[in-house]
Here is the input.
Amino acid sequence: MISVIIPTFNEEENIAQCLVSLSHQTVARTTYEVIVVDGGSKDRTCEIARKYADRVFTQTSRKVGGARNDGIDAAKGDIVATTDADCILPPSWIADLMKDFDDPAVAQVYGPVYPIEDSIGNRFSLLLANTFSRIGYYSRTFYYTLGCNTAFRKDAFLRAGKYRCIDAGDDLEIALRMLDQGKIRFDGRLKVGFSMRRYKQYGTFKSLYEWIYIVSHGGETQKYSYTQKKYK
Here is the structure.
């Protein structure tokens, strides 16, 4: 079984389309479970999520990484996958992950993203991200993994020490530790729709600068906050 973990916070506008995309997979619904871990939403996020997810509960650990950890701790599957509440998953996402983990040496799998809000600027921004993902993978120098489109062998993830509970960069840092657990595979078929709403509202360069600043300072800083942003 594959367990899909989705952290949420005030996502009533987006969570349904994410969960519907997970409901329309090419494999039987009994082969995977969906777990929503909420960060204390004040809107209808949890009410909507309960219509589709197998489990919905409130996180007890800090930050997005902590929410993912809580979900993975509760997961029944020996493979655990993570995505975001404002993403759209392709119909073959679960099936392709299953094929990737047929290789017992694989410990982590990740894939590319495309912009849900289509524009030349958004395409270019994610083209850069996807290029970094591929260059890092094929050069074996770094692994530009994203929490919205990655999966782990659960026992390897637990041995690696789980996600760090930090403000940004937890999804990149975990790959460094997963290298000790087995192979990391990039799968270009795993194309996930990624919302650009943060960049639209707060500006691409400002958002990227804040993210880089936080990551370069160890994942947390008093100067900027990257999680639980308010969107119009």
In short: Residues 29 and 47 are 21 Å apart (CA to CA).
